[in-house]
Amino acid sequence: MQTPSGTFALVRGVPKTFHRAITPSESTEPIDVERAREQHERYCQALEGLGLKLIRIAADDRFPDCPFVEDTALVLGDRVIITAPGAEARRGETGAIEQALENYMTLYHIQSPATLDGGDILLIDEHVYVGLSSRTSSLAAEQLRQILADTRYDVTPVAVDGILHLKSACTYLGDDVIVYLPGHLDDDFFARYERITVPRNEAHAANCLSINGTVLVPAGAPETRAHIENAGFDTLEIDISESHKVGGGLTCSCIIF
Length: 257
Ligand code: CIR
Known about the structure:
This protein is of the alpha/beta class. It has helices spanning about 35-50, 95-100, 140-145, 165-170, 220-230, 240-245, and strands at about 10, 55, 75, 80, 105-110, 120-125, 125-130, 155-160, 170-175, 175-180, 195, 210, 215-220, 235-240, 255. The chain has a single domain, classed as L-arginine/glycine Amidinotransferase, Chain A, CATH 3.75.10.10. The protein is globular, with a radius of gyration of 17 Å.
């Protein structure tokens, strides 16, 4: 079975200001910061259990959304592309990530006025799909295409509607299989892949994290988990209820390379 793999996972702690993280308009539930910390620690342990070496960065209380490191940088081959997060309040998160990654890879930057959140990048083998959402602009997709022009990666934009990021609607498991929540992009767009359809009442499970032979599936999605197992993948359930309240999923809290 061909599934995404990695050696390192960069993670960042949960700040004491996490209750002020950007919240989707439909969410009204209070955020329990202590619980978020416990869940984040179990998530980190799960990544270690899958053989990843953790690079831990300290939380920064000035940035309530800082645990969602995925949005700040993309690693593609030997290049790291520091993003320009679409939410103004998150722009300052990139500095610490850049410092942590510059020792490992060559740095590139998405330049303002373009904006890009890593949650809009779906990587399938050498194909980089860029969700054009409220956070990510077509100008950023074009910059990314230029940065990757002399590499094996190709870049394809896809319009995303009514959901935070492309990877809130769709994630890749490996072996040409994706988990897919209908209704947020052209339903024919990923027709070349085998799709596991996520039921609306398990919408949060469209964001799974497949790494080193195991698919992390969020708690509260038994139907999706059963479909993923029936498709031949090993799964591990992880509870990230506090992240879900602020729009975060399983891919958001690490950068794997
Ligand atoms: C935000 O709105 O930016 C954060 N509250 C959630 C970001 C989740 N990140 C991701 O899906 N990659």
